[in-house]
Amino acid sequence: MQIQYRLPDNLDQEINELEGLIAKCKQGEMSPAELKLHRVPFGVYEQRKSDTYMVRVRCAAGCITPEQLIKIAELATRYGSDKIHLTTRQEIQIHYVTLDNLIPVMRGLKETGLASRGGGGNTVRNIMSQEDAGISLDEAFDTTPYALALTSRLIAESDSWTLPRKFKIAFSGSSEDRGYATIADVGFITRIKDGQKGFKVYVAGGLGAKSDAGHFLLDFIEDDQVYAVTTAVKRIFWKYGNRKNKHAARLRFLWNTLGPEEFQKRFDEEYQAVKTQNLPPLTIEAIDNSGRSPVLREGKIEDQNDFELWEKRFVQPQKQKGIFSIIVPVHLGYLDNAQAVRLGQFLRPFGENVLRMSKDQNFLIRNIPETYLGNVYLFLKDTLDHFNRPLFIDKMISCAGASTCQLGICLSRPAANAVIKALSRYEIPAKALDTLSDIRINISGCPNACGQHPIAHLGFFGKVARKGDKVYPAYNVVAGAVVRDGETKLNEKLGEISARDIPAFIQEALKRYLSKSSEHKNFEAYLEREGKEDLRKLCAQYKEIPSFEEDKNTYFDWDSDKLFSVADRGKGECSAGLFDLIDMDLKMIEETRKKLDAGEAPEKKPEHLRTIVYYAARALLITRGCEPKTEKELHENFTTHFIHTGLVAGRFQPLLEMARERNDASLCARAQDVLALADRVKLLYEIMDNAFQFKINECAALPTAGVPQHPGAFPSREITTSPPSLPKIVKDFRGVTCPMNFVKTKMALAKLQPRELLEIWLDDGQPIENVPGSVREEGHAILEQKKINDYWAVVIEKK
Amino acid sequence: MDFTEEQLERYSRHIILKDIGVEGQQKIVRGKVLIIGTGGLGAPAALYLAAAGVGTIGLVDGDVVELSNLQRQVIHFTPDVGRPKVLSAKEKIEKINPDVRVLAFHQRATADNILGLIKDFDFIVDGTDNFPAKFLINDACVMGKKPFSHGGILRFDGQTMTYVPGSACYRCIFDSPPPKGAVPSCSQAGILGAVAGMLGTIQAAEAVKFLTGCGELLTNKLLIFNALTMNFRQARVHRAPQCPVCGESPTITTLVDAEQPVCDLKRPPG
After folding, report:
1. Do B22 and A740 count as a contact with CB atoms less than 8 A apart?
2. Low-confidence winner among A79-88, A568-577, A660-669 (lowest mean pLDDT)
3. Among partner residues A744, A750, A778, which is closest to B18 by beta-carbon distance?
């Protein structure tokens, strides 16, 4: 088959092995976590709904035959959900497959020449090529055969499955870079030099929580060097990539670590080594894009104007004379299985090479002779719900978002739907929208860029925002990206808006552009010259959001009937969204501190101190899944999660109450402690890892590294929460002032054996604020500290 | 051993210290320190050690209080002029801290008596004002295996080191006393009173550190300071294998009194 990659010889065996592992997991002989290590590289991801999985099918260069499409849709119907999903990397996903059905799906895929192997995990991922490769007017030559041949070769190599992180390869046929070669780990852009076919090569680009445009590596390689260059880069990655930290593992991090010269040097070494191996170059077979003329049932076009409009919107001439390509809009990449089957059946008579998936999650039909355009029109009109809307609407990209993705923050797909719905009311006339079809509007539910927001003309990525005590879904607004050979740049952040305001914001932004579009070549040029400034101002207009009491809608995400909350999110890369929130709280602390330091309006000092206590207590609670509704609850949560765990010294606890009770005099007297509390929280944040754990050892070592030291602010060791036995001795130090109470505590401790317990009773105020901290400083553990009427009982375990 | 309420309170600021604590204070209270010379260095040392609660303080000095002493020897007061220094000091110590037992030896430390004097003490403070005495104390402590703090002051300078058996001794660094007249004595050269206080206090701190075992002693280190510049520096010193008293083949095996240079002001010429 012309447009198919070759399945690895051992695929059957690998599927059998996975089957064995799944059986073991079901019998409890293997943990789900262990199984995950095996299933993810098979393109199988767990979904938000428990025990359901998504299977991602490799479709090199976005190629799929009508037969394959039908088969995938049938597999989805039988084992998954009623829709298939087209991805931004030209793959198809089957959703909601149960563990039991994974193997039947894989075997079914194999029957039709497809595999999910390498659909996920630290592997060579689907190799992309611009969807109009082989037919576009501006390309040097067809890149599809290269993407297919490279796929066949790489997926047969075992080291393609054991890379430090995912590895993405892309091909473009022209400097317009419609294959996104300039944002790939390895990107190839066609060039002809002295009559020789070849490629310009970019490396180490990629989108994610820390996106980066690709870096120029080679100006020209002859086309038989594609495999050698890829192998050299792959080997560098395999050898030197960071396997320890998956958040800094992509090739772009290695580029940044090594620097351009060192990377280039290592590449040259590896490239020379590969060359001396004389590996056979890829077998490139030209693909026929001539188009067939089957016998079809005739149809009748009733609305000639509608047909012409459709033609204008979706139909493009190919470089093959008299042959056309047609965009099939797929609503945010989701297509009913039944519609997919019908599409496959309709296209079957036109041959195998008739369909591609595009990176904007639509289909591109190709190789249709002009006389059949009417048939295609009638078929699509009959089959799709919205087959003739302005293309702009269906070019919009959104990731799956929090509806199915475990990492999501915002419900990006419902948000995109809301935008589509709003646009479909044609407040902006369809005619105007038709002039906007070159604009990329991309929405990601979190910073991870699955919705490709970093390369959007106008992009959004989800975040958590806060007003008062309430959190609400929001998006950062980014704009101004360019993807083109030699010009690629990621966009910049312009502001943020609530999720609720997305449809209005986008429409407003478009209107502004439309009012000035005559002055600019296109949207990209507009952004460059004045658009970003316009959008910044627009963001400012949407800055104010209604309070919860005024309008609750803002506090619900799109299509959600539950009040927005991040309590159940967290683990995983999207915690970046939470970091935003923490940063905001810490910023508030800093600003308040500046006011304090400035010393203006001394009467405001208590208020400032209360503010600092408030934000210090709140900042990290979100990492513990807490969203306290009241100040009291906030303080209780803080006590539970930070003071009782020993992460923050007990002597800070009274500050919470002083702030809450508006006990300004006491609070002012302990202003230094308030600042120390803030420092402590900041320190904890600094040493927090991506799983929200605190590295206590580092924490103990930190004070010498420039952080002001506050006695008792640093836990000396982890404490056990349940005392091993009852305290042997109880000492009543009520009425004993500082520091004699501490002296007597030490005296009492001196008589105990290590690990024995002592209970002391201390007065409220200074004694409870100081003694436990001092005791902890000496290396003893405070096991318990509770208030009894007007005094405190503290249980100490001798070190 | 339990502290009384009064003792707890008296020593509370020591007990609070993590490095001293209850256990450290108990060691201080059980400690015995001999101060040889109750002058510029011995006076502040004795005051601080008494205040700290050192259980037994021995004082060795054959002199009486002179008016010129009062400029720096802060344990003696004006009415004490003419009284034996050890008695004057004993009285003050007992006033500061009645818990301290004071043993007063109104005599010079000599080759004959020094081993007997140091025998029952844990730590010796050298507060003498002349080289022969300093070498005598050193030799006696090396032979008697007693730790001691050396101290020397002149004009605005001070130097001190601490010896514990096994570390470099005074003779490892300074082989023998300088020829008579080569180094002026305090009376000829003068001394800033506070310098004596500074150095004596450092010696007291070394004694307390030794008793409690906390911190790092000035062993194998010579601390030198100048009060005019307030530069403090430490010179690393090493045990000398050829040291005549603590070396591999010692030549000094018995104690002898070197000639005592007289303090000019104290004894009228002629």
Report:
1. no
2. A568-577
3. A778
B8 and A744 within 8 Å at the Cβ level: the answer is: yes
Residue A2 lies in a domain: no
The predicted structure's pLDDT at residue A647? 83
Residue A517 phi, psi dihedral angles, 5° rounding: -60, -25
Name the one residue in this structure whose structure tokens are 């020897």.
B73
Statement: residue A457 has pLDDT above 60: yes
Rounded to a whole number of angstroms, the distance from the CA of A574 to the nearest CA of chain B is: 45
Residue A413 domain-assigned?
A: yes
- In this predicted structure, what is the pLDDT of residue A752? 87
User: Do A579 and A511 belong together in one domain?
Assistant: no
pLDDT of residue B256: 85
Structural domains in chain B, CATH included, are 31-236 (3.40.50.720)
Q: Is the pLDDT of residue B31 over 70?
A: yes
**Same structural domain, A269 and A310:** no
pLDDT in tens, A216-268: 999 999 999 999 999 999 999 988 887 766 677 899 999 998 999 999 999 99
Boundary (domain end) residue, out of A555, A584, A611: A555
Same domain, yes or no: A90 and A199:
no
Q: State how many domains chain A has.
A: 6
Residue B265: per-residue pLDDT: 41
Of A365, A394, A423, which residue constitutes the final position of a domain?
A: A394
* Domain CATH code at residue A677: 1.20.120
Q: What is the mean pLDDT of chain A?
A: 87
Closest residue in B to A775 (Cα) is B18
Assess if residue A118 is contained within a domain.
no
Q: Which of B7, B12, B19, B214 to mutate to test the interface with A (most CBs of A within 10 A)?
A: B12
Regarding whether A408 and A548 lie in a shared domain, the answer is yes
Contacts with B8 from chain A: Cβ below 8 Å: 740, 743-744, 747
Kindly state the average pLDDT of the residues A97-122.
93
Q: Give the mutation candidate from A747, A758, A771, A778 for the B interface (greatest B CB count, under 10 A).
A: A747
* Closest residue in B to A749 (Cα–Cα): B22
Q: Which structural domain, as residue segments, surrounds residue A383?
A: 304-394
Q: Does the pLDDT at position B22 exceed 70?
A: yes
Q: Does A744 touch chain B (CB under 8 A)?
A: yes
CA angle (B19 as vertex; B16, B22 as ends), nearest 5: 55
Strands (E) in A273-318, as ranges, are 315-317
Q: What is the pLDDT of residue A573?
A: 34
Interface confidence, given as ipTM, is: 0.78
E strand or H helix at A532, and its extent? helix A532-541
Mean pLDDT within B197-205: 98
Same domain, residue pair A541 and A661: no
Binned at pLDDT 50, 70 and 90, residue B262 comes out as very low
Segment A184-196, tens digit of pLDDT: 999 999 999 999 9
Mutate to test the interface with A, among B7, B9, B10, B22 (most CBs of A within 10 A): B22
User: CA angle at residue A753 from A748 to A758, to 5 degrees?
Assistant: 45
Task: Name every chain A residue with its beta carbon within 8 A of the beta carbon of B9.
Answer: 740, 743
Asked if the model's pLDDT at residue A9 lies above 90, the reply is: no
Rounded-to-integer distance, Cα A153 and Cα A283, Å: 10
Contacts of A746 in chain B (CB under 8 A): 15-16, 21-22
| Residues of chain A with C-beta less than 8 angstroms from the C-beta of B25 | none
Nearest CB to B12 within list A739, A774, A778? A739
Confidence category of residue A712, pLDDT binned at 50, 70, 90: very low
CA distance A713 to chain B (A): 16
Instruction: Say how far apart CA A3 and CA A65 lie, in whole Å.
Output: 8
Q: Closest to A743 (Cβ–Cβ): which among B16, B18, B23?
A: B16
